Amino acid sequence: MKFLLSCNLLALLALSALAAETPSPTPQATPAVETLPARAPKEQLATELKGGSVLRVNSTNQSYDFFRPWSKKAPLNRRGLGAVIDGGEVLVTAELVWDSNFIELEKPETGERSSAKVAVIDYETNLALLKPTSQDFLKDLQPLDTDAQVKLGDHLSVVQFEANGTAVSTEALLTSAEVGHYVLDDYSYLLFKMSCPLQYRDNSFTLPIVQSRHLISMLLRYDPRSQTIEAISTPVIQHFLKEAEHQPYQGFPSFGISFSPTRDPQFRHYEKLSDSEGGIYVDDVEPNAPAAQADIQTGDILLSIAGKAIDPDGDYDDELYGRLSITHLITTLSYSGQKVPVTLLRHGERKEVDVSLFNRPPQDYAIDPYVIGRPPRYLILGGLVFEELSRQYLREWGPAWQREAPQRFVYFDHYQADLFPKPRKIVFLSQILPNNDTIGYPQLNYMAVEKVNGQPIYRLEDLAKAIEKPINGFHKIEFDLDPKVIYLDAAQVEQNAAQLQKTYSLPGLRRF
């Protein structure tokens, strides 16, 4: 899968020692911000957080088991902190509350509690807004401002709480800003990096980082060995909050290309690039993405985006943070629904195109990059368990899933844009539940379905429709691997369906 950058597939990153777990177009202009002076947070944090701006957040999470898609895994508890903001909402990381069964807010000083629900969540930027079910729970609390901006070298306060509810802070020095991975594979946004000797305390899954009553960022992960923080940056938080004001929430836009630098002087001479200009070479264009819809093609050289010149490495000059990847320019400084002008060079001829930006939801891909907050889809026929391939399924093999998962499926996932350019899903046989209908087929799994009863299968709905018309009383199922074809007695499958469901305690034989 190719997004704005050609990213290697990485394992899901956690909060290391801080992860306390128990097993509608939007406006095109970015909001005006206030630049805060650099200062050391020596004053008492109680002054900065006067009015109760930070709450404890307790979440009970229970994700689905993609090896048994009809069931969930054991619940676990996550405990973090949330920042109260304007609008009667609490900002947390999405990872704290995704796949949650129950969320509780707690005032550290008084212990007063209220349940809460997710109002808006963005898994790609790892941000979520919570709304307390009690309308008056936040009325006496003073929200943190979110309209500020900081610069490199600023001193910030990482907020934590002692067990007795006393607010404490640790000084963090903002050392750098760069585009990097958040939590999910393939999604990169502006990261703040900070130097900070942080100590572990309870409720540390999410930690707000503040300065002078302004919410600056949210802790993403912490390395206790180097004492460095990676945090969700201010521009990403501000974009998320601005986008969350509109319904439906449209998400952060993408561009949909992979590219190579143009440092080679012979290549630059061949492409008629002058010494005074940069430019990046488009290696590939993701089908149906914004770039493809604007007719940007493989082989084009992009010279500028949104009026910003692109250097040969794919960076531009950001007014606040210096040289940054154009990923930040596209995903965060621009909004879904916005058109951005692009200057490109094609076969020596300069062209101007407008790219209409939008977010591609995970369901839009042949293999979903993530399945969170929604159950996996499946269909069981005579004990044959069919699913749609997703990155979440591959992740069930653990952090080394790229080596441990079925390699054909890893290959499908990595090259899906080239292998499956047309809209579709990869329906596959994940396992067989032994019963009388599947005698003789005990070891079959990880096989992609091509046809059922003569009908091509591009999603589970196709499979459900195809089994309505058996061939001569049998379901004929064709795969891409040996055995190429297997058969099920249609009448026997229907007759045994209720017993199969009872035997394996299945809540249902299908879920779309």
List the helices and strands and how they pair.
Elements: E1 21-22, E2 34-35, H1 45-48, E3 54-61, E4 76-85, E5 89-92, H2 94-97, E6 100-106, E7 113-122, E8 127-132, E9 148-149, E10 155-161, E11 167-181, E12 188-195, E13 208-211, E14 214-223, E15 228-232, H3 234-244, E16 257-260, H4 265-270, E17 280-285, H5 290-293, E18 301-305, E19 308-309, E20 315-318, E21 322-325, H6 326-331, E22 339-346, E23 349-356, E24 378-381, E25 384-388, H7 391-394, H8 401-404, H9 407-414, H10 416-419, E26 427-432, E27 447-452, E28 455-456, H11 460-466, E29 474-479, E30 485-489, H12 490-503, E31 510-511
Parallel strand pairs: 2-9
Antiparallel strand pairs: 1-4, 3-4, 3-6, 4-5, 5-8, 6-7, 7-8, 10-11, 10-13, 11-12, 12-15, 13-14, 14-15, 16-17, 17-18, 18-19, 18-22, 20-21, 22-23, 24-25, 24-31, 25-26, 26-27, 27-28, 27-29, 29-30
Summed over residues and divided by their number, the pLDDT gives a mean of 90
Secondary-structure-based class equals alpha+beta
How much helical structure, as a percent, in the residues?
10-25%
pLDDT < 50 stretches: 1-44
Radius of gyration over C-alpha positions, nearest whole angstrom = 26 Å
